[in-house]
Each structure stands twice: as C-alpha cells, then as structure tokens.
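Regression test case RT-17, inverse folding.

Input:
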C-alpha cells in the first residue's frame, strides 16, 4: 500500500471509522420508539459526511448495520433496511455532486435484490469521484470479513498452486472489503460504550480510539472536530519509540 505519510498533515486523520451508536437511547430519552432514533441518525450521517469533506478527511467508514444486528426485533430490522434504501435513493445525486465515492462493505449474501441493486447503483455511479471515499458498513462484521477474505485467498492459492505458507499480511489486507484503502487512523464510537462490536478488527490494529459521550443523532461537525483534536494530541508509536534519535545506545 502506498505510504504518503511523509507528505501529509499528521494532525488530520486520513481515514476515520465511526461506530454510530446510541439511536435507541436517544429515542428512549424522548419517549419515542427506536425507529425515531434511527431516522434522526440519518441526519447525523449527512452531517458526518459533510464534516469529513470539509475537514480534509479522505476516507470515512460508517458502521450502519452489523452482521449481529439481524437479531433485533423484525420491525426494527425492517426500519433499518428501509432507512438504508431511502438514504441511497434520496442522497446519491447530492453525494455524487459533492465528489463522494461510495463503497458498501460487508457481506452481500442473502440481501434482497432491491437493496443489492441500490448498493450496486451507488457504487457504480460514484466510482469516478475522489473528494471523499465513503464506506458504508452494512451487514458487516469484522470476523465475517476476515473469514470471507480467507476463503477468497484459499481458493486463489489452490487455483494458482501457491504455497499457503507464503501468505503475507498484504495478501490479507488486499482480500478484505477495504482492500487498497489505508487503515483507519481514528475510530470514533458515540454513546459512551467502549467496545468495537466487531468493527474493522483487522484494520484497527493501530487505530486511535475515541469514545464520545453523545448519542449518534446528536453528532455533528463540532463532535468530529473534538474527536480529531483528541486524535492530534495522541502519540502514535506503532510499537516503536517516540523519538528514536534521543535514545542513548
Ligand atoms: C445504533 O444505535 C444503530 C445501529 C446499531 C443500527 P442503536 O440502535 O444501537 O442504539 P442503542 O445503542 O440501543 O441506544
Ligand atoms: C454496533 O452497535 C453496530 C453498529 C453501530 C451498526 P450495537 O449497538 O449493535 O453494538 P452492541 O450490541 O452495543 O455491542
Ligand atoms: Mg447500540
């Protein structure tokens, strides 16, 4: 993967991943059904996408629906799928006009033809855009993504007669849904929960984690700026030492 870290402003994360959490609690606090919170969450998605472009972030990954979220009540799952379809239908033209390239990451197995069709249209119509790379993690689980990558690599290795012992980390990175994209520098989770919930397990090896107290529907540019400020105050070592030249041998 190309590394241009020498030439860029290291205060701004290149890739931000967001676990958009807290829609249900936001709605409950207003004595409303959970679906009301999910609907309000879509407006926060729009704000996050706009803020990412304005702040010079080149890759944004939004966790919209996990492979485990199918276990929610049928009615809620239906609401969430409906909102995903509505978002693509309503926002695709504007996203394209603003230079956003959309990719949907996650498993496509067993998704209904209407949602699959919309996803493919969004990816196809936005394929030449480059202001912001937006990944929407839908029917996504980090373990499932790694499993699918392994299955793909195993088939490829068998077909080419390659020795499985020669598999590299780059092979695995390339076989993930995010193949070719930089790892997230910053992972944000709203709602105060402090866990990854199966989000970007491989890619987050050295991501900085920022947990925000706000519920997802309240997220806006100022929360994004706050998370980036926190990110900029961190020292990333990647297993090394902060300033190797200062260390007496
Ligand atoms: C995030 O909000 C949306 C999805 C997971 C799809 P939640 O629905 O998880 O809201 P809480 O965590 O119950 O408040
Ligand atoms: C993670 O949130 C999934 C998404 C944001 C899409 P959850 O609300 O599903 O996670 P848990 O159940 O609290 O770990
Ligand atoms: Mg939640």
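Golden output:
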């Amino acid at each position: 993967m190309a590394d241009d870290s020498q030439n860029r402003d290291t205060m701004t994360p290149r890739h931000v991943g967001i676990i958009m959490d807290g829609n249900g609690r936001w709605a409950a606090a207003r004595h409303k059904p959970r679906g009301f919170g999910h609907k309000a969450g879509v407006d926060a998605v729009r704000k996050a996408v706009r803020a990412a472009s304005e702040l010079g972030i080149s890759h944004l990954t939004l966790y919209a629906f996990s492979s485990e979220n199918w276990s929610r009540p049928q009615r809620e799952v239906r609401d969430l799928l409906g909102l995903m379809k509505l978002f693509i239908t309503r926002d695709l033209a504007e996203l394209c006009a603003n230079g956003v390239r959309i990719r949907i990451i996650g498993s496509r197995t067993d998704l209904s033809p209407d949602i699959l069709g919309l996803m493919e249209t969004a990816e196809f119509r936005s394929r030449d855009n480059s202001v912001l790379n937006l990944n929407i993690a839908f029917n996504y689980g980090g373990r499932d993504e790694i499993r699918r990558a392994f299955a793909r690599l195993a088939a490829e290795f068998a077909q080419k007669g390659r020795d499985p012992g020669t598999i590299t980390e780059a092979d695995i990175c390339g076989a993930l849904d995010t193949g070719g994209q930089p790892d997230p520098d910053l992972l944000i989770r709203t709602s105060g929960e402090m866990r990854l919930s199966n989000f970007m397990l491989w890619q987050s090896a050295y991501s900085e984690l920022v947990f925000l107290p706000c519920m997802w529907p309240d997220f806006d540019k100022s929360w994004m700026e706050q998370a980036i400020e926190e990110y900029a105050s961190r020292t990333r070592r990647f297993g090394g030492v902060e300033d190797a030249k200062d260390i007496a041998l």
